[in-house]
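CORE FACILITY INTAKE
Project code: CF-77B
Contact: R.S. (postdoc)
Sample description: multi-component assembly, two entities in total
Requested service: structural model of the whole complex
Turnaround: standard
Below are the sequence entries exactly as provided by the requester. Do not edit them.
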Amino acid sequence: MKEGTGRGLPPDLITDLYLNLLTEIWEIASALIGEAILSLLFLSAIQKIGERHPFLLSLKVSEEGIGLDRVREEGKKLSPLEVHKGFQGLINQLTHLFSALAEGVINKELFPKVFPKIKEAERIVSLK
Amino acid sequence: MRLIFKNLNILRSTINAISMNFDPKGIVESAGTNLPHLFRFTSFGLLWKEDLVLHLYEEEACPPPFTKKVVENMVTVLSILGRQPIDVGQVKVQIERGGSKPDQAMLPAQAVLKSHLTLPLPVEGEVVGCISLNSREPNAFDVQDLQFFSVIGYQISATLKHCQQLSSIKNIAVYDTLTNLHNRRYFEEKLAIETEKSFFTGTPLSLMMVDIDHFKKVNDTYGHPVGDKLLCHIASLLKSSVRKDDTVARYGGEEFVLILPGASLEVSFRIAERIRDLVEKSDFETGLSHLRLTVSIGISSFPTHRARSKEELVKMADQALYSAKRGGRNQVRIFTP
């Protein structure tokens, strides 16, 4: 994928796609490991990836779930590619953490949902 | 359906067993006994962040490389989620060996870690440790195992939190909050035990009462915060001047009391002189200037003074202290009938 692709596309499209995906990840993983552990994993991943993609730091996570309003606003200020890269990094980090904890058990449940959405995001971003 | 119900019942009794414990070691022993009814595993571990002790319950013939890999995995998870890198070398491993089960009796010496579930233990948003279920079989755990194990993890977190609260309540009950010395209540209980022991066996027991001279003047001149600081300083001098089995407690105000089991009158006098000398030669910081302080000390000792009760021993030490004060302060006095 070339840098600068996706210009002219509304960033909302990518943001919404990823926010839906994060909500789905939350629902699947919380049923397996509970909200308290999952919120710790999300916070750890956000902190790490937020260093390179600060807009992710506006994601609010607690045991009640993920707060998406502020990140949606922050995402509007960025290009779709930047938003895509940030969320992709976050999801990679989450799957890395899931793997460190439970090897393939969590990821096996998530991958069928996650992969198609990431492919879809890549397709949208690559549209000229 | 029947199988799920059976497993839920086992899960419930495992949780009950875990919640009956008061420390990580007990939790691991209890989990080690109960978890084999729910999972097939080679080892179960609990890494407790506070003291960096890894309590490991594993099969009799578990080879060291297997254990090493388990430790590394758990340290990695705790380092990532505990937001603080931990060196594997810092972790103390305490192994509890479980008996080999019939289907695992032939654990080969080269058995390696093939699969694991490792979960952090969250308490109020902080990671206080992690637990791990490990197997030499590949893909040993499935979704239901993970769900059950996380329920067990939450119970362990709740139990550990409860233990921490109990321990802090216990600390409040026996320690003086200002000086961190034992409080009077603990002193009374400890003295009852030590006098009973000495009266029964005839072994010596000495009691020392220490009072800071002219302390009211210090408080009036420099204020109570400075006075409190000096009390803490004297408390740490006392603690560093006694033997391992001696008890130092704050008796009240600027008065301290020391129980010296096994110490004869001569030994306790030497210790008392050392304390008096140390205080006299110490420089105490007041914030604006340096201050010199002195202490008066009274000693009573069993069997020399023929005390017949702990109350009598305290009264004798108190009288000796009064005599030291009357004699001009900054001195050690032994009880004289």
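Facility notes:
- The first helix of chain B runs from residue 2 to 19.
- Chain B touches chain A through 27 residues (CB under 8 Å).
Invoice: internal transfer
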